[in-house]
């Protein structure tokens, strides 16, 4: 019985190491990439409105649309961070 518990503790320690490694090596760069790509997509989608190409006074609308896109990205990243924090607290790990 004692050996079985020892084996389970070793397996869980390996799992913690793997998840911690994944979070530090992949999660942070992916989150940064999502933020940058999302802002880029928002600018591209609203470029004509932001620069007010036709002189119709659409600059404010374009900037507000861009802020909505950035807001949705930040909310999505907050959800991802909450999931990471939940996993982190359940496995009692540190980044």
Question: Would you mind describing this structure in some detail?
Answer:
By secondary structure, this protein is mostly helical. The protein has a domain at 26-91. It has helices at residues 2-45, 47-51, 59-91. The model has no long low-confidence stretch (mean pLDDT 78).
Can you tell me the overall shape?
A: elongated
Order of helices and strands: HHH
Mean pLDDT: 78
Q: Look at the helices and sheets and give the structural class.
A: mainly alpha
Count of DSSP H/I helices: 3
The count of DSSP E runs of length 2 or more, i.e. the number of strands, is 0
Detail the poorly predicted runs. Answer: none
Helix % is over 70%
CA-CA gap between termini: 33 Å
> Major beta sheet, specifics?
none
The whole-angstrom Rg is: 22 Å
Estimate the strand proportion: under 5%
Quick summary of this structure?
The chain has 95 residues and is mainly α.
What features would you highlight for this structure?
single chain, 95 residues, mainly alpha, 3 helices, 86% helix, DUF4134 domain-containing protein, membrane, transmembrane helix, transmembrane
């Amino acid at each position: 019985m004692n050996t079985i518990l020892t084996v389970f503790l070793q397996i869980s320690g390996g799992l913690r190491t793997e998840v911690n490694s994944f979070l530090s090596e992949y999660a942070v760069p992916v989150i940064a990439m999502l933020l940058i790509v999302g802002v880029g997509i928002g600018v591209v989608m609203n470029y004509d409105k932001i620069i007010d190409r036709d002189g119709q006074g659409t600059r404010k609308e374009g900037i507000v649309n861009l802020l909505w896109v950035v807001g949705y990205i930040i909310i999505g990243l907050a959800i991802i961070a909450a999931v990471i924090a939940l996993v982190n607290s359940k496995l009692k790990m540190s980044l």
